[in-house]
Amino acid sequence: MGSGAVIWRMIQARMDLALRLMLGGRHRLPTGEFAQRILGAGAKRARRLREGCMIRSSLRGLSVLALSFAVGASQAAELPELGDRSSGLVSPATERQLAQIALKQIRSSVDTIADPILKYYVKVNVHRLAEFSGISEPALTTVLIDNPQINAFAVPGGIVGINLGLFLYAHDESEYSAVVAHELAHLGQRHYARSVEEQRAMTPWMLAGLLASLAIAAGGGGEAGMAALLGTQAYAQDKALRFSRSREQEADRIGLNTLERAGLDPDGMGRMFERMQTAFRFVDKPPEFLLTHPLTDARITDARNQAERFDGRTVEPSLDYQFMRARARIHYADSPRRAVADARSLRGGGDADTYALAVALSRADHHEEAVETARRLHQAHPHSLLMAASLAEILIAAERLDEALVLLSNRLRINPDNEPLTYLKAEALDSADRHAEAAELLWRHARVNTDDVDVWHLLAETAGFAGDTMGVHRARAEYFALFGAYRQAIQHIEYARRLVDTDDRTLGARLDQRLLDLRTEYEAAREQSGPRPG
Description:
Elements: H1 3-24, H2 33-39, H3 43-47, H4 60-77, H5 92-109, H6 116-133, E1 141-145, E2 152-155, E3 159-163, H7 165-169, H8 173-188, H9 191-197, H10 204-218, H11 222-228, H12 231-261, H13 267-279, H14 288-292, H15 297-307, H16 319-331, H17 336-345, H18 351-363, H19 367-380, H20 385-397, H21 401-414, H22 419-431, H23 435-448, H24 453-465, H25 469-481, H26 486-498, H27 505-528
Parallel strand pairs: 1-3
Antiparallel strand pairs: 2-3
Helix pairs in contact: 1-4, 2-24, 4-5, 4-10, 4-27, 5-10, 6-8, 6-12, 6-22, 8-12, 8-13, 9-12, 10-11, 10-12, 12-15, 13-15, 16-18, 17-18, 18-19, 19-20, 20-21, 20-22, 21-22, 22-23, 23-24, 24-25, 25-26, 26-27
C-alpha cells in the first residue's frame, strides 16, 4: 500500500471517530429528533450549549493533516503574479486558500470567545488599524481566542487572531493596538511569502508542514501542532523562525506609522514592549508571542527612538477599551463572587471601575444592583454603543426583557444591523419566548455575518425553540461547515432537504445548490489530502 493510501485511511479513520464522538456526545445534534428534544428543555439549560464547542480535540489530527496536504497541493499549481517576486511560491490567491483552511483548523483546535461585545471591539479595532496600515487584503477575519496569555498572530490571507489575555497586559488602547499593528505590518509586507521565497531549497512537503505548523501554533495549539508534524517540518519551522526575526524591526516601524496615522500614541509600542519584557524576564516558559517575537533592549530602544519622529500629541484615554479590559479580567476571575470582590476593591472610582462592578454583579446574579449601576453609567455615556450593549446584556440577565428590547431597538435605528446589538436583541426575543421573531432576525443577520460560528449556533438553538426543525438543520449545517466538518454539514442539509414542501421549489433549489457546494468543497478537501486507496 502506498504512503498516500495510508495517509488517506488515517484521515478517514479520524473523520469517522470525530463523527462518532460528536453524534454520541452531550452536544450532539444528529437528526430531526434534536428539535423535539430542545423544545422540551428549559431555556437556560439549552443556552448552556453555547458554552462549549462540539468540535475540538476530535478534529485536531484531521485538521493538521488536511492543512499540510492542501497547501502542498495548492502551492504547486499557482502561477506567479507579475510585479511580486514573492508570489512565485506563495501568491495572494494561495494565501487566501491557506487562510480558509487555517481558520477552520484554528476553530477546531482552540477555544474562542463568544462574547459579542468583546468580539465587536476586536473586529472594529483591527479594521480601523488596517485602514491606516496600507494592507491590501480585501477582507480580514478576526478570531478572539480564549487564552489569558499575551498573543496575537496574522495568518497569510487575512486572518488576525487575538488572545483575550492581551487585554490583561496592555494598559491602554495604544499599547494594545501596537501589537495588532505590528501583526498587520507582517501581512502588509507579505513577510511570510518573502520568507518562503528565500527558502526555495525547502521541499513542497517541508513547505506544507511549515504552513500547517505556523497556523496551529498561532492558534494556541503549539504543542499539539508540533507533536503532529513530521520530523523534517521541525527543521523548516526553525529556519522560518530565525528568518522572521529579521523582519521584526520592519514590522515595528510600519506599525508605529500605523498608530500615528490612526490617531493613537506611537509611544505605546515601546511601553508595551517594556511591559512584556519586565513581566516575563525571569519565567522559564515565556508566552507564544515572545517566542516568535523575541524582545531585546535594542529593539525596545529602536521603538522608542522611532516614536520620537512624530510630533508630540495628547491621546485621550479610550473608555471603551477600559470597558473591554474589565470584561477580560472578569472572564478570567476565579469565580463570579471573586470578580465582584475584586471590582469592589478597586480604588480608582472611575467609570471603568464602575463598569467592572456592574458586569461582575450581573455575572454573580446580583441583578438589581447590576442594573442600577449599569443604568447610571449608561446615562453618563449615552452615545457609547458598547455601554448600551452592555446595559442591554445586564437587563436580559435580570429578565427585564421589555426594557432591554426598547433600548436595543432604539440603538438599532441609529446603528442598523450592528452585530452585538442584533445578537443581543435576538437573545432578548428568545428569552421573551418570541422565538419566531428571534429566528427571523438571526436569519437576516447570518446572511451578512456568514462566518460567525456563534450566530449560527444561536440560530440553531432559536429555530429549535420556534419548532422549525428544518431551520435547525440548515443552521447546524453552516455551523459544521465553518469547522471543516463537511460530512456532518452535508448530513444536516440532506435532513433539511427532506423536510421541504414539494411546492416550495425556490427553497428546494436553494438547498440543492448548497448541498452541491458542500459536496464540492468536501471532494476538494479529499483530493488535496492525497491519492485515494485502490
